[in-house]
Amino acid sequence: MINGEILKNAIISGAHNISVQKNHINDLNIFPVPDGDTGTNMSMTVMAAAKALEDYDGETAGEVADIAAKAMLRGARGNSGVITSILFRGFAQGLKDVEEVNGKNIAAALGIGVEAAYKAVAKPTEGTILTVARMSYEAGLEASHENSDPVFVWQAIVDKANEALAITPELLPVLKKAGVVDAGGKGLCSIFEGMLCCIKDGVIVEYEDSQPLTMESFDSAAAEFDDDIEFTYCTEIIVGRDPACELDPDDLRSFLQTIGDCVVMVNDEEIIKVHVHTETPNVVLEKGLTYGQLLAVKVENMKEQHKNAKENSKKKSKKKKETFAFAAPEEEFGFVAVAAGEGMKTLFHDLGCTNVVSGGQSMNPSTDDILEAVLGTPAKNVLVLPNNKNIILAAEQVIPLVEDRKVVIVPTRTIPQGMTALLNFDPDISAESNAQLMMDAAKAVGTGLVTFAARNSEFGGRKIKEGDIIALRNGKLTITEKHAVKALVKLAKDMVTRDTSFITLIYGEDVSEEDANKAYEELRDKFGSRADISLVKGDQPIYYFILSVE
After folding, report:
1. What is the Cα–Cα distance from 169 to 177, expressed in whole angstroms?
2. pLDDT tens digits for 264-277?
3. Taking Cα atoms as reference points, which of 534, 535, 536, 531 lies closest to residue 550?
4. pLDDT tens digits, one per residue of 6-27
5. How far is Cα of residue 79 from the mean position of the Cα atoms in its chain?
6. Which of 299, 251, 305, 298 is CA-nearest to residue 279?
7. pTM flag (> 0.90)
8. 3-class DSSP state for residue 218?
9. In what order do the strands lie in the sheet with 355-358?
10. Which of 157, 154, 47 lies closest to 101, judged by CA?
11. Sequential DSSP letters for 484-539
12. 537 — phi, psi (to 5°)?
Protein backbone atom coordinates (compact mmCIF):
# COMPACT_ATOMS: atom_id res chain seq x y z
CA MET A 1 0.00 0.00 0.00
CA ILE A 2 1.05 3.61 -0.62
CA ASN A 3 0.59 5.96 2.32
CA GLY A 4 0.79 9.74 2.33
CA GLU A 5 4.53 9.86 2.94
CA ILE A 6 5.31 7.53 0.03
CA LEU A 7 2.98 9.40 -2.34
CA LYS A 8 4.48 12.72 -1.26
CA ASN A 9 8.00 11.48 -1.99
CA ALA A 10 6.86 9.94 -5.27
CA ILE A 11 5.44 13.24 -6.53
CA ILE A 12 8.59 15.08 -5.45
CA SER A 13 10.68 12.45 -7.24
CA GLY A 14 8.59 12.87 -10.40
CA ALA A 15 9.08 16.63 -10.25
CA HIS A 16 12.83 16.21 -9.84
CA ASN A 17 13.02 13.75 -12.72
CA ILE A 18 11.36 16.07 -15.23
CA SER A 19 13.50 18.97 -14.03
CA VAL A 20 16.56 16.89 -14.95
CA GLN A 21 15.17 16.10 -18.39
CA LYS A 22 13.42 19.37 -19.24
CA ASN A 23 16.04 20.66 -21.67
CA HIS A 24 15.94 17.39 -23.60
CA ILE A 25 12.14 17.64 -23.69
CA ASN A 26 12.38 21.24 -24.90
CA ASP A 27 14.55 20.05 -27.77
CA LEU A 28 11.73 17.81 -28.99
CA ASN A 29 9.73 20.86 -30.02
CA ILE A 30 9.73 20.56 -33.79
CA PHE A 31 8.46 23.94 -34.94
CA PRO A 32 11.40 26.30 -35.50
CA VAL A 33 9.77 29.30 -33.81
CA PRO A 34 10.92 30.01 -30.23
CA ASP A 35 8.04 28.64 -28.19
CA GLY A 36 6.81 27.98 -24.67
CA ASP A 37 9.25 25.13 -24.06
CA THR A 38 7.19 22.13 -23.05
CA GLY A 39 9.76 20.68 -20.68
CA THR A 40 10.22 23.93 -18.79
CA ASN A 41 6.47 24.51 -18.50
CA MET A 42 5.76 21.00 -17.25
CA SER A 43 8.72 21.08 -14.89
CA MET A 44 7.61 24.36 -13.32
CA THR A 45 4.08 23.04 -13.00
CA VAL A 46 5.07 19.87 -11.11
CA MET A 47 7.79 21.59 -9.10
CA ALA A 48 5.04 23.81 -7.68
CA ALA A 49 3.58 20.64 -6.15
CA ALA A 50 6.97 19.49 -4.87
CA LYS A 51 7.49 22.81 -3.08
CA ALA A 52 4.00 22.70 -1.59
CA LEU A 53 4.64 19.20 -0.24
CA GLU A 54 8.07 19.85 1.27
CA ASP A 55 6.73 20.68 4.73
CA TYR A 56 3.75 18.32 4.74
CA ASP A 57 3.95 15.80 7.61
CA GLY A 58 0.59 14.06 7.21
CA GLU A 59 0.10 10.43 6.42
CA THR A 60 -3.03 10.54 4.25
CA ALA A 61 -2.54 9.86 0.55
CA GLY A 62 -5.72 11.74 -0.30
CA GLU A 63 -4.45 14.90 1.42
CA VAL A 64 -1.10 14.64 -0.39
CA ALA A 65 -2.80 14.31 -3.76
CA ASP A 66 -5.09 17.27 -2.96
CA ILE A 67 -2.19 19.54 -1.94
CA ALA A 68 -0.24 18.57 -5.05
CA ALA A 69 -3.20 19.11 -7.37
CA LYS A 70 -4.01 22.55 -5.98
CA ALA A 71 -0.37 23.64 -6.24
CA MET A 72 -0.11 22.37 -9.83
CA LEU A 73 -3.32 24.14 -10.80
CA ARG A 74 -1.96 27.49 -9.63
CA GLY A 75 1.51 26.85 -11.00
CA ALA A 76 0.35 25.49 -14.37
CA ARG A 77 2.10 26.99 -17.40
CA GLY A 78 1.52 26.29 -21.07
CA ASN A 79 -0.92 23.78 -22.51
CA SER A 80 1.11 20.72 -21.48
CA GLY A 81 1.54 22.09 -17.97
CA VAL A 82 -2.19 22.74 -17.62
CA ILE A 83 -3.05 19.27 -18.94
CA THR A 84 -0.62 17.78 -16.41
CA SER A 85 -2.30 19.73 -13.62
CA ILE A 86 -5.74 18.52 -14.77
CA LEU A 87 -4.52 14.90 -14.76
CA PHE A 88 -3.35 15.27 -11.17
CA ARG A 89 -6.52 17.14 -10.16
CA GLY A 90 -8.57 14.16 -11.36
CA PHE A 91 -6.11 11.85 -9.61
CA ALA A 92 -6.73 13.78 -6.38
CA GLN A 93 -10.49 13.57 -6.81
CA GLY A 94 -10.19 9.81 -7.14
CA LEU A 95 -8.16 9.57 -3.92
CA LYS A 96 -10.35 11.86 -1.83
CA ASP A 97 -10.54 10.67 1.80
CA VAL A 98 -8.31 7.67 0.97
CA GLU A 99 -5.62 7.07 3.59
CA GLU A 100 -3.62 4.37 1.79
CA VAL A 101 -3.62 3.59 -1.93
CA ASN A 102 -3.62 0.26 -3.71
CA GLY A 103 -3.32 -0.49 -7.41
CA LYS A 104 -7.06 -0.28 -8.05
CA ASN A 105 -7.21 3.16 -6.41
CA ILE A 106 -4.36 4.35 -8.60
CA ALA A 107 -5.88 3.16 -11.85
CA ALA A 108 -9.34 4.52 -11.08
CA ALA A 109 -7.98 7.90 -9.98
CA LEU A 110 -5.79 8.24 -13.05
CA GLY A 111 -8.85 7.46 -15.19
CA ILE A 112 -10.70 10.44 -13.70
CA GLY A 113 -7.77 12.67 -14.58
CA VAL A 114 -7.57 11.37 -18.15
CA GLU A 115 -11.28 11.94 -18.72
CA ALA A 116 -11.01 15.50 -17.39
CA ALA A 117 -7.96 16.23 -19.55
CA TYR A 118 -9.73 15.13 -22.74
CA LYS A 119 -12.73 17.30 -21.85
CA ALA A 120 -10.52 20.32 -21.18
CA VAL A 121 -9.12 20.37 -24.72
CA ALA A 122 -11.50 21.70 -27.37
CA LYS A 123 -10.15 19.41 -30.09
CA PRO A 124 -8.23 16.51 -28.52
CA THR A 125 -5.41 15.31 -30.77
CA GLU A 126 -4.03 11.79 -30.61
CA GLY A 127 -0.27 11.46 -30.68
CA THR A 128 0.10 13.92 -27.82
CA ILE A 129 0.32 13.85 -24.02
CA LEU A 130 -3.38 12.87 -24.03
CA THR A 131 -2.63 9.62 -25.84
CA VAL A 132 0.19 8.77 -23.44
CA ALA A 133 -2.04 9.48 -20.44
CA ARG A 134 -4.99 7.49 -21.80
CA MET A 135 -3.02 4.40 -22.82
CA SER A 136 -1.11 4.32 -19.54
CA TYR A 137 -4.40 4.52 -17.62
CA GLU A 138 -5.90 1.68 -19.67
CA ALA A 139 -2.85 -0.49 -18.97
CA GLY A 140 -3.00 0.38 -15.28
CA LEU A 141 -6.68 -0.51 -15.10
CA GLU A 142 -6.05 -3.88 -16.76
CA ALA A 143 -3.09 -4.58 -14.47
CA SER A 144 -5.16 -3.75 -11.38
CA HIS A 145 -7.60 -6.52 -12.25
CA GLU A 146 -4.70 -8.97 -12.36
CA ASN A 147 -2.89 -7.75 -9.26
CA SER A 148 -3.83 -4.84 -7.00
CA ASP A 149 -0.28 -4.33 -5.75
CA PRO A 150 0.49 -0.61 -6.37
CA VAL A 151 4.04 -1.29 -7.53
CA PHE A 152 2.78 -3.79 -10.10
CA VAL A 153 0.14 -1.34 -11.37
CA TRP A 154 2.43 1.69 -11.49
CA GLN A 155 5.05 -0.34 -13.35
CA ALA A 156 2.40 -1.23 -15.93
CA ILE A 157 1.44 2.44 -16.22
CA VAL A 158 5.04 3.49 -16.83
CA ASP A 159 5.71 0.71 -19.33
CA LYS A 160 2.61 1.53 -21.36
CA ALA A 161 3.34 5.28 -21.17
CA ASN A 162 6.68 4.67 -22.87
CA GLU A 163 5.07 2.37 -25.44
CA ALA A 164 2.48 5.04 -26.18
CA LEU A 165 5.20 7.67 -26.48
CA ALA A 166 7.01 5.53 -29.04
CA ILE A 167 3.97 5.43 -31.33
CA THR A 168 3.18 9.17 -31.19
CA PRO A 169 5.08 9.72 -34.50
CA GLU A 170 2.77 7.20 -36.17
CA LEU A 171 -0.27 9.15 -34.97
CA LEU A 172 1.09 12.60 -35.83
CA PRO A 173 2.85 12.73 -39.22
CA VAL A 174 4.60 15.98 -38.36
CA LEU A 175 6.43 14.15 -35.53
CA LYS A 176 7.41 11.31 -37.82
CA LYS A 177 8.77 13.68 -40.43
CA ALA A 178 10.90 15.43 -37.82
CA GLY A 179 12.04 12.12 -36.31
CA VAL A 180 10.92 12.93 -32.75
CA VAL A 181 8.30 11.85 -30.23
CA ASP A 182 5.75 14.18 -28.64
CA ALA A 183 7.36 16.53 -26.12
CA GLY A 184 4.38 16.62 -23.73
CA GLY A 185 4.13 12.84 -23.81
CA LYS A 186 7.83 12.56 -23.00
CA GLY A 187 7.36 14.94 -20.10
CA LEU A 188 4.57 12.82 -18.65
CA CYS A 189 6.73 9.70 -18.99
CA SER A 190 9.49 11.48 -17.08
CA ILE A 191 7.10 12.34 -14.24
CA PHE A 192 5.70 8.82 -14.05
CA GLU A 193 9.21 7.29 -14.14
CA GLY A 194 10.38 9.55 -11.33
CA MET A 195 7.39 8.49 -9.24
CA LEU A 196 8.13 4.82 -9.95
CA CYS A 197 11.67 5.19 -8.57
CA CYS A 198 10.16 6.08 -5.22
CA ILE A 199 7.15 3.74 -5.24
CA LYS A 200 9.20 0.72 -6.31
CA ASP A 201 12.64 1.31 -4.83
CA GLY A 202 12.12 4.05 -2.25
CA VAL A 203 14.55 6.31 -4.11
CA ILE A 204 13.80 10.00 -4.72
CA VAL A 205 15.40 11.26 -7.91
CA GLU A 206 17.95 13.91 -7.00
CA TYR A 207 16.92 17.44 -7.90
CA GLU A 208 18.90 19.19 -10.59
CA ASP A 209 18.09 22.55 -12.13
CA SER A 210 19.02 21.93 -15.74
CA GLN A 211 18.45 25.49 -16.85
CA PRO A 212 21.23 26.61 -19.19
CA LEU A 213 23.60 29.33 -18.02
CA THR A 214 22.05 32.71 -18.78
CA MET A 215 23.60 36.09 -19.42
CA GLU A 216 22.11 37.25 -16.11
CA SER A 217 23.97 34.54 -14.22
CA PHE A 218 27.15 35.40 -16.10
CA ASP A 219 26.79 39.06 -15.20
CA SER A 220 26.37 38.24 -11.55
CA ALA A 221 29.29 35.83 -11.52
CA ALA A 222 31.52 38.22 -13.43
CA ALA A 223 30.87 41.05 -11.00
CA GLU A 224 31.73 38.76 -8.08
CA PHE A 225 35.35 38.59 -9.22
CA ASP A 226 35.88 42.30 -9.73
CA ASP A 227 38.26 42.53 -6.80
CA ASP A 228 40.26 39.53 -7.99
CA ILE A 229 41.43 41.13 -11.25
CA GLU A 230 45.16 41.68 -10.88
CA PHE A 231 45.85 42.97 -14.38
CA THR A 232 43.64 45.53 -16.08
CA TYR A 233 44.04 44.92 -19.80
CA CYS A 234 43.16 41.82 -21.80
CA THR A 235 45.53 42.15 -24.75
CA GLU A 236 45.47 40.11 -27.94
CA ILE A 237 47.69 40.52 -30.99
CA ILE A 238 48.34 38.64 -34.20
CA VAL A 239 51.81 39.13 -35.66
CA GLY A 240 52.64 38.38 -39.26
CA ARG A 241 56.09 36.86 -38.88
CA ASP A 242 59.00 38.49 -40.63
CA PRO A 243 60.87 35.71 -42.52
CA ALA A 244 64.12 37.50 -41.78
CA CYS A 245 63.49 37.54 -38.03
CA GLU A 246 65.58 34.98 -36.18
CA LEU A 247 64.09 35.59 -32.73
CA ASP A 248 62.69 32.52 -30.95
CA PRO A 249 58.91 32.79 -30.32
CA ASP A 250 59.38 30.89 -27.06
CA ASP A 251 61.37 33.88 -25.80
CA LEU A 252 58.27 36.02 -26.43
CA ARG A 253 56.18 33.66 -24.30
CA SER A 254 58.74 33.83 -21.49
CA PHE A 255 58.80 37.61 -21.66
CA LEU A 256 55.01 37.92 -21.54
CA GLN A 257 54.91 35.79 -18.40
CA THR A 258 57.05 38.41 -16.65
CA ILE A 259 54.59 41.26 -17.35
CA GLY A 260 51.21 39.53 -16.94
CA ASP A 261 49.24 36.32 -16.57
CA CYS A 262 46.83 34.09 -18.55
CA VAL A 263 49.43 33.88 -21.32
CA VAL A 264 48.35 31.89 -24.36
CA MET A 265 50.47 31.82 -27.50
CA VAL A 266 50.08 29.94 -30.77
CA ASN A 267 52.53 30.19 -33.62
CA ASP A 268 53.37 28.68 -36.96
CA GLU A 269 55.61 29.68 -39.84
CA GLU A 270 53.41 32.64 -40.81
CA ILE A 271 51.85 34.14 -37.66
CA ILE A 272 52.13 34.39 -33.90
CA LYS A 273 48.89 34.80 -31.96
CA VAL A 274 49.19 36.12 -28.41
CA HIS A 275 46.75 36.51 -25.49
CA VAL A 276 47.85 38.05 -22.16
CA HIS A 277 46.44 39.98 -19.20
CA THR A 278 48.76 42.85 -18.35
CA GLU A 279 49.11 46.42 -17.07
CA THR A 280 51.27 47.42 -20.06
CA PRO A 281 49.58 46.55 -23.36
CA ASN A 282 51.89 48.99 -25.14
CA VAL A 283 54.86 46.85 -24.17
CA VAL A 284 53.14 43.77 -25.63
CA LEU A 285 52.63 45.59 -28.93
CA GLU A 286 56.24 46.83 -29.00
CA LYS A 287 57.58 43.38 -28.28
CA GLY A 288 55.32 41.85 -30.94
CA LEU A 289 56.68 44.29 -33.52
CA THR A 290 60.16 42.84 -33.11
CA TYR A 291 58.80 39.61 -34.67
CA GLY A 292 57.00 41.20 -37.61
CA GLN A 293 53.97 43.33 -38.54
CA LEU A 294 50.89 43.60 -36.33
CA LEU A 295 47.97 42.14 -38.26
CA ALA A 296 45.36 42.54 -35.51
CA VAL A 297 45.23 44.19 -32.10
CA LYS A 298 42.56 44.05 -29.38
CA VAL A 299 42.87 45.63 -25.94
CA GLU A 300 40.01 45.55 -23.42
CA ASN A 301 39.79 47.05 -19.94
CA MET A 302 38.62 44.12 -17.84
CA LYS A 303 38.01 46.13 -14.68
CA GLU A 304 35.71 48.47 -16.57
CA GLN A 305 33.91 45.51 -18.11
CA HIS A 306 33.40 43.95 -14.71
CA LYS A 307 32.27 47.26 -13.24
CA ASN A 308 29.61 47.53 -15.96
CA ALA A 309 28.63 43.92 -15.38
CA LYS A 310 28.16 44.63 -11.68
CA GLU A 311 26.01 47.68 -12.39
CA ASN A 312 23.90 45.69 -14.84
CA SER A 313 23.55 42.92 -12.31
CA LYS A 314 22.34 45.39 -9.66
CA LYS A 315 19.80 46.84 -12.07
CA LYS A 316 18.51 43.39 -12.94
CA SER A 317 18.33 42.34 -9.30
CA LYS A 318 16.02 45.27 -8.63
CA LYS A 319 13.52 43.97 -11.20
CA LYS A 320 11.29 41.92 -8.96
CA LYS A 321 8.36 39.82 -10.07
CA GLU A 322 5.39 42.04 -10.77
CA THR A 323 2.63 41.93 -8.19
CA PHE A 324 -0.95 43.09 -8.32
CA ALA A 325 -2.61 44.35 -5.14
CA PHE A 326 -6.11 43.06 -4.41
CA ALA A 327 -8.88 45.39 -5.57
CA ALA A 328 -12.53 45.11 -4.60
CA PRO A 329 -14.90 44.56 -7.54
CA GLU A 330 -16.57 47.96 -7.74
CA GLU A 331 -16.64 48.81 -11.45
CA GLU A 332 -18.78 46.96 -13.98
CA PHE A 333 -16.02 45.82 -16.40
CA GLY A 334 -12.27 45.41 -16.28
CA PHE A 335 -9.61 43.84 -18.47
CA VAL A 336 -6.47 41.76 -18.00
CA ALA A 337 -4.12 41.08 -20.90
CA VAL A 338 -0.92 39.09 -21.32
CA ALA A 339 1.94 40.79 -23.18
CA ALA A 340 5.72 41.09 -23.12
CA GLY A 341 7.72 44.31 -23.46
CA GLU A 342 7.28 47.67 -21.77
CA GLY A 343 5.99 49.32 -24.93
CA MET A 344 3.48 46.53 -25.39
CA LYS A 345 2.30 46.83 -21.81
CA THR A 346 1.80 50.57 -22.25
CA LEU A 347 -0.18 49.93 -25.41
CA PHE A 348 -2.59 47.57 -23.64
CA HIS A 349 -2.94 49.93 -20.69
CA ASP A 350 -3.83 52.67 -23.17
CA LEU A 351 -6.45 50.38 -24.70
CA GLY A 352 -8.16 50.03 -21.31
CA CYS A 353 -6.48 47.13 -19.50
CA THR A 354 -6.17 47.58 -15.76
CA ASN A 355 -3.45 44.95 -15.45
CA VAL A 356 -1.04 43.44 -17.95
CA VAL A 357 0.69 40.18 -17.05
CA SER A 358 4.22 39.73 -18.38
CA GLY A 359 4.31 36.81 -20.75
CA GLY A 360 3.92 35.48 -24.24
CA GLN A 361 5.94 33.23 -26.49
CA SER A 362 8.66 31.36 -24.56
CA MET A 363 7.54 32.92 -21.26
CA ASN A 364 4.10 31.54 -20.41
CA PRO A 365 2.67 32.95 -17.16
CA SER A 366 1.16 30.55 -14.65
CA THR A 367 -2.49 30.29 -13.74
CA ASP A 368 -1.60 31.92 -10.42
CA ASP A 369 0.03 34.88 -12.21
CA ILE A 370 -3.18 35.50 -14.16
CA LEU A 371 -5.32 34.92 -11.07
CA GLU A 372 -3.43 37.60 -9.16
CA ALA A 373 -3.96 40.10 -11.98
CA VAL A 374 -7.68 39.27 -12.08
CA LEU A 375 -8.05 39.80 -8.33
CA GLY A 376 -6.19 43.08 -8.74
CA THR A 377 -8.75 44.35 -11.26
CA PRO A 378 -11.53 46.35 -9.53
CA ALA A 379 -14.40 45.01 -11.62
CA LYS A 380 -17.39 42.73 -11.27
CA ASN A 381 -16.74 41.31 -14.73
CA VAL A 382 -13.11 40.73 -15.70
CA LEU A 383 -12.34 39.88 -19.32
CA VAL A 384 -8.97 38.15 -19.80
CA LEU A 385 -7.10 38.28 -23.11
CA PRO A 386 -4.30 35.64 -23.22
CA ASN A 387 -2.97 36.80 -26.63
CA ASN A 388 -1.21 33.47 -27.14
CA LYS A 389 -2.63 30.03 -27.93
CA ASN A 390 -0.38 28.41 -25.32
CA ILE A 391 -1.77 30.61 -22.52
CA ILE A 392 -5.51 30.22 -23.14
CA LEU A 393 -5.83 26.94 -21.22
CA ALA A 394 -3.95 28.35 -18.21
CA ALA A 395 -6.22 31.40 -18.23
CA GLU A 396 -9.33 29.20 -18.29
CA GLN A 397 -8.23 27.52 -15.05
CA VAL A 398 -8.65 30.86 -13.26
CA ILE A 399 -12.46 30.82 -13.64
CA PRO A 400 -13.29 28.31 -10.86
CA LEU A 401 -10.76 29.93 -8.50
CA VAL A 402 -12.58 33.27 -8.33
CA GLU A 403 -15.74 33.74 -6.29
CA ASP A 404 -16.21 37.49 -5.86
CA ARG A 405 -16.32 38.42 -9.57
CA LYS A 406 -17.07 36.90 -12.93
CA VAL A 407 -14.10 35.94 -15.12
CA VAL A 408 -14.62 35.60 -18.86
CA ILE A 409 -11.82 34.46 -21.17
CA VAL A 410 -11.63 36.12 -24.57
CA PRO A 411 -9.45 33.49 -26.29
CA THR A 412 -7.22 35.79 -28.33
CA ARG A 413 -4.26 33.94 -29.84
CA THR A 414 -2.07 36.88 -30.90
CA ILE A 415 -1.24 40.44 -29.87
CA PRO A 416 -3.09 41.97 -32.87
CA GLN A 417 -6.17 39.95 -31.98
CA GLY A 418 -6.01 41.28 -28.43
CA MET A 419 -5.71 44.87 -29.62
CA THR A 420 -8.67 44.57 -31.99
CA ALA A 421 -10.77 42.75 -29.39
CA LEU A 422 -10.36 45.60 -26.92
CA LEU A 423 -11.26 48.19 -29.54
CA ASN A 424 -14.56 46.38 -30.15
CA PHE A 425 -15.71 46.18 -26.51
CA ASP A 426 -19.29 47.38 -25.94
CA PRO A 427 -20.07 48.52 -22.37
CA ASP A 428 -23.83 48.20 -22.97
CA ILE A 429 -23.89 44.39 -23.34
CA SER A 430 -23.01 41.48 -21.05
CA ALA A 431 -19.53 40.09 -20.50
CA GLU A 432 -20.39 36.88 -22.37
CA SER A 433 -21.84 38.79 -25.32
CA ASN A 434 -18.76 41.00 -25.35
CA ALA A 435 -16.48 37.97 -25.45
CA GLN A 436 -18.28 36.76 -28.57
CA LEU A 437 -18.33 40.22 -30.16
CA MET A 438 -14.66 40.85 -29.41
CA MET A 439 -13.56 37.47 -30.77
CA ASP A 440 -15.60 37.88 -33.93
CA ALA A 441 -13.70 41.09 -34.57
CA ALA A 442 -10.36 39.55 -33.56
CA LYS A 443 -10.71 36.67 -36.01
CA ALA A 444 -10.90 39.14 -38.89
CA VAL A 445 -7.42 40.49 -38.10
CA GLY A 446 -4.38 39.12 -39.86
CA THR A 447 -1.29 38.57 -37.71
CA GLY A 448 2.20 38.60 -39.16
CA LEU A 449 5.27 37.69 -37.13
CA VAL A 450 8.95 38.08 -37.94
CA THR A 451 11.30 36.16 -35.68
CA PHE A 452 14.27 33.78 -35.81
CA ALA A 453 14.51 30.02 -36.15
CA ALA A 454 15.29 28.48 -32.77
CA ARG A 455 16.41 25.19 -34.28
CA ASN A 456 17.21 23.45 -37.56
CA SER A 457 14.04 22.22 -39.18
CA GLU A 458 12.22 21.49 -42.40
CA PHE A 459 8.77 22.82 -43.13
CA GLY A 460 6.79 22.80 -46.35
CA GLY A 461 9.73 21.38 -48.24
CA ARG A 462 12.05 24.20 -47.16
CA LYS A 463 15.09 23.63 -44.98
CA ILE A 464 15.52 26.10 -42.15
CA LYS A 465 18.75 26.67 -40.26
CA GLU A 466 18.96 27.81 -36.67
CA GLY A 467 19.22 31.60 -36.64
CA ASP A 468 17.49 32.17 -39.99
CA ILE A 469 14.94 34.98 -40.08
CA ILE A 470 11.48 33.53 -40.55
CA ALA A 471 8.06 35.10 -41.06
CA LEU A 472 4.67 33.64 -40.20
CA ARG A 473 1.26 34.58 -41.50
CA ASN A 474 -1.47 33.67 -39.00
CA GLY A 475 0.79 31.03 -37.51
CA LYS A 476 1.87 29.49 -40.81
CA LEU A 477 5.51 29.76 -41.78
CA THR A 478 5.69 31.45 -45.18
CA ILE A 479 9.05 33.22 -45.57
CA THR A 480 12.72 32.69 -44.73
CA GLU A 481 15.19 35.53 -45.11
CA LYS A 482 18.54 36.83 -43.95
CA HIS A 483 17.29 40.23 -42.77
CA ALA A 484 14.26 41.06 -40.62
CA VAL A 485 13.18 44.13 -42.61
CA LYS A 486 13.25 42.22 -45.91
CA ALA A 487 11.20 39.44 -44.34
CA LEU A 488 8.69 41.98 -43.04
CA VAL A 489 8.20 43.64 -46.42
CA LYS A 490 7.66 40.26 -48.11
CA LEU A 491 5.21 39.31 -45.37
CA ALA A 492 3.25 42.53 -45.77
CA LYS A 493 2.97 41.99 -49.54
CA ASP A 494 1.56 38.56 -48.80
CA MET A 495 -0.98 39.82 -46.24
CA VAL A 496 -2.22 43.20 -47.46
CA THR A 497 -5.23 43.12 -49.80
CA ARG A 498 -7.43 45.69 -51.51
CA ASP A 499 -9.75 45.57 -48.52
CA THR A 500 -7.03 46.38 -45.98
CA SER A 501 -7.75 49.61 -44.09
CA PHE A 502 -5.36 49.54 -41.13
CA ILE A 503 -1.81 48.31 -40.73
CA THR A 504 -0.02 48.43 -37.38
CA LEU A 505 3.69 47.66 -37.19
CA ILE A 506 5.07 46.83 -33.73
CA TYR A 507 8.83 46.54 -33.40
CA GLY A 508 10.70 44.63 -30.74
CA GLU A 509 13.56 45.17 -28.36
CA ASP A 510 16.17 43.86 -30.81
CA VAL A 511 15.19 46.27 -33.61
CA SER A 512 16.89 49.66 -33.86
CA GLU A 513 14.84 52.79 -34.45
CA GLU A 514 16.65 53.15 -37.75
CA ASP A 515 15.50 49.72 -38.94
CA ALA A 516 12.01 50.28 -37.56
CA ASN A 517 11.68 53.58 -39.44
CA LYS A 518 13.08 51.98 -42.57
CA ALA A 519 10.47 49.24 -42.36
CA TYR A 520 7.73 51.79 -41.73
CA GLU A 521 8.78 53.90 -44.73
CA GLU A 522 8.78 50.85 -46.99
CA LEU A 523 5.29 49.89 -45.87
CA ARG A 524 4.07 53.45 -46.31
CA ASP A 525 5.53 53.69 -49.82
CA LYS A 526 3.87 50.44 -50.86
CA PHE A 527 0.54 50.58 -49.02
CA GLY A 528 0.08 54.12 -47.72
CA SER A 529 -2.36 55.06 -50.48
CA ARG A 530 -4.91 52.47 -49.37
CA ALA A 531 -4.37 51.96 -45.62
CA ASP A 532 -3.57 53.90 -42.44
CA ILE A 533 -0.18 52.72 -41.17
CA SER A 534 0.98 53.08 -37.56
CA LEU A 535 4.39 52.38 -36.03
CA VAL A 536 4.54 51.28 -32.38
CA LYS A 537 7.59 50.60 -30.20
CA GLY A 538 6.60 47.39 -28.43
CA ASP A 539 9.96 46.36 -26.91
CA GLN A 540 8.76 42.76 -27.17
CA PRO A 541 11.32 39.93 -27.02
CA ILE A 542 11.46 37.07 -29.55
CA TYR A 543 9.64 38.91 -32.35
CA TYR A 544 11.48 41.53 -34.37
CA PHE A 545 8.18 42.69 -35.85
CA ILE A 546 4.51 42.03 -35.18
CA LEU A 547 2.26 43.06 -38.05
CA SER A 548 -1.47 43.67 -37.64
CA VAL A 549 -3.50 43.83 -40.85
CA GLU A 550 -7.23 44.56 -40.89
Report:
1. 8
2. 677 777 888 887 88
3. 531
4. 999 999 999 999 999 998 888 8
5. 12
6. 299
7. no
8. helix
9. 355-358, 331-339, 379-385, 406-409
10. 154
11. HHHHHHHHHHHH--TT--EEEEEE-TTS-HHHHHHHHHHHHHHHTTTSEEEEEE--
12. -85, 105
